[in-house]
Amino acid sequence: MKFNLRFLFIALFICTISIAQNKGTISGVLTDKDMNNASLPFANVLVKGTNISVNTDVDGKYSLSVNPGNYTLIFSFLGYESVEAPVAVKANETVTINQGLSAGSYTLKDVVVQATAVSKQKETALLLEQKNAVDIKQTIGAQELSRKGVGDVAAAVAKTSGVSKQEGSNSVYVRGLGDRYNSTSMNGLPIPSNDPQRKNIALDLFSTDIVEYISIDKSYGAKMYGDFAGGNVDIVSKDYRGKGMFEISLGSKVNTNAVSNSSNFLLQQGPNKSGFVSYGVPNNPLTSFSFENSLNPKKESPFGGNFNLKAGKTFNIGEEGKLSLFATAGFANGYEYREGLSQSVNAQGASLKSFQQEKFTYNTNTTGMFNANYRLNKNHKIGYNFLFVNTSEQTRDTYYGSDRDFDNENADLLVQRGTFTQNTVFINQLLGNDKLTDKIDLDWGLSYNTVKGDMPDRTQNKMFHNPTTDVYTLAQRTTTDNQRYFQNLTENEAAANLAFSYKLQDQDGESKGKITAGYNGRFKNRDFEAIQFNFNISQTGQNTSVNPNNLDAFFNQANYESGLFSTASFAGMTPQTYDGKQDIHAGFGNIEYKFANKLSLVAGIRYERISQTVNWRTQLDAGGGTNTFERNEFLPSAVLKYELNEKQNLRLAASKTYTLPQFKERALFIYEDVMESVIGNPSLYPSQNYNLDLKWEMFPKSDELFSVTAFGKYIMDPINQIIIASSTNDISFVNIGDTGYAYGIELEARKNIFEIEGEYTNKLSFGFNASLMKTHQDIDADKVREETDGRLNINTTDNSSGFTGASDLILNADLSYTKNFRNDSGIMATLAYNHYSDKLYAIGNEGKGNLVDKAMGSLDLILKTKLTKSFGIDFGARNLLNPEFKRVQENAGGDVLVFNYKKGLTFGLGMNYQF
């Protein structure tokens, strides 16, 4: 028996070897026809009718071992037409099948992105680019944006490690550093802010429909502008490749808070549903009551929706030329409602202002984009990008409660404010890439951008309410209590990039790196004006009963003529103004060099000449004023990369940068809100920043990643927003102390839980990133007094604090399941979670504790389906946990709640069809 088993084993072994020796091999290279036959990494090669498949390597190469016979190979890649090729295989022979693929004319909505560049959309290709680059960078492409159900760029960057978005605003924080420490660009060219209160454009203006990929640079390089400390977000626009595509999509969404108040959803009159308005300051407002819009609110049905059109086509021109066109246009709107406490308290917790706030909101986003990319041949490319974005937000706020400045023992105080803001952005870019010789490349870019920000006819009225008699009367302690306000901003900016690169080679002709030298210029002009019309209510008018929802019955031409109220402004019909001019000229040099097979260096130096001038004429300085500073900045940077093995890298980066104050922060202008007022400081000056990063990363598979990054930042003369010691407790901007620092660690993981290979995808994957950090800054009241010549004084509760907006812990996690079926149908489901720990909102003063936003988490569910080759349905459920947002004042006697609300759940349903 033993002999027989041994004989059988030997026979099977010999048979197996014989079969293996008789197998044949199929090998070859896959290339991209639309990219001059560049290699296609991570493309799929499948033996039809079997489970035998393989992915191409980084050079587009593949190899398969099969038994002798006749087969059909299926070559496929994301966004490209699949190709079938017959092949006959003989024993012990190798058959070479090279295949070129071109972009197809079909797509799985938001899962397979139509006709796109390989290296700029697929997660695996972006990870490959990240792995091979010397610089430290993170990218998020259209494929990942779709999988996580991300609809705009702000939500996209908040999915990356170390980045958070402030609740209730457009502010993005990178490693605990807020708006002033970050920068935004599009295709490498700077873009201006759409908001006079902000340095950076609101990232949620940009729909992901226009995005090829987003790059987040958290370590500085000499090619970037030096106004950097947290990170730079670069939005790279679509570059279409394909035979032709036209797609239409429709959707609807509802917010549970808004729908539950649908019977009483009230907004101010004037703005229309489109988000575009044309009204402004009326004629003769100081001698008549001629305002165009009614003060009476109107009822709305709070059901939002969206529609979008996309089209693209590529044309061959001559033997080598190719023209690619892409355009998209869309409109989206939505309604929100929230209610909760809004108050300010003193150090003992006693109320200074205490209101129950209701906020009704309607917002719109209109986007139009067109780009044309012309490849003359493999050496020359030129492109034009145009982007138009119009957003609007219409809010009606009501505050009901008490204000110590409106002490009335028989009545409560009601404040009504109606605000409409319209922001319009025009971006024009001309980009080029030229290969001048085999070793010299030229990259260049020009842009001209315009931003218009309007706040026409903001209204505010204050009333006393006697709960016993249920009578409302107009309240007045100053003439500014009842007002109408108009604000206009226009900013024009031109920019230019120019960079020459020279490739370095060894004696054998192998690449050793490159030297880059270039110029950047950025020239910005801003004009801002605002005028406020205050209504002085006569004593008779203050005793007249009014209806809060029918104030037109009081504020009208007849009552104006009878003297119940009069109208005045700061300086007649002359508005308050400020204007700013900022010029930056920069030259840079950069060398990228590979010392050995595993060690590489990027080192650079940048020089910038900066000039910033602000002029103003405001109610705080009726005679007008001006302030100018000029700076010369020398900014070194270096990155070392060591390849531990083919799957692991170690990187070290160090740099020096600076942080500029903004026009609004230096103009002596005051902006008044219901709960706070903000005033500029002409004495503000730039901070200096020193940055250090150490990163380890591992790529187990083409679509998997593990990384750990330690970072540190040392900031000299940090700029902060803080309450100044004054009778009105205004907020201003100061260089708060000599030093500040931030340090922390970031973790990131992308892992496939299971993946069944074959003709149809069946995959479950997990993504996770977390950031742990600590921030600290000194507070020096004497420094503030001396540098502002005694104009500003601060009296903070503590002599140090963390950075405003910074969380010690930020966490993102997602679980995604993808399944493809026959006939180009499929399904993708993603569950995404985000959490941030307590974060500092404002620094305490006069014995009051810091204002802190408490920890909060959110959970979203995204479901995307493709039912046929052309038709798909999507569903989204956001904020499923519906947590309560809380802001507390951390007094010595304990935390006092000062602000809270819940956002409600938002459900969306959409469908798309491609022709």
UniProtKB/TrEMBL annotation:
Residues 441-880 form the TonB-dependent receptor-like beta-barrel domain. Its main location: membrane. It is a multi-pass membrane protein. Residues 137-231 form the TonB-dependent receptor plug domain. Residues 1-20 form the signal peptide. It holds the Pfam family TonB_dep_Rec_b-barrel. PROSITE patterns: TONB_DEPENDENT_REC_3 (PS52016). Keywords: Cell outer membrane, Membrane, Receptor, Signal, TonB box, Transmembrane, Transmembrane beta strand, Transport. It comes from the Bacteria. InterPro entries: Beta-barrel_TonB, Beta-barrel_TonB_sf, CarboxyPept-like_regulatory, Plug_dom, Plug_dom_sf, TonB-dep_rcpt-like. It is found in: Cell outer membrane. Belongs to the TonB-dependent receptor family. This is TonB-dependent receptor domain-containing protein. It comes from Flavobacterium chungangensis.
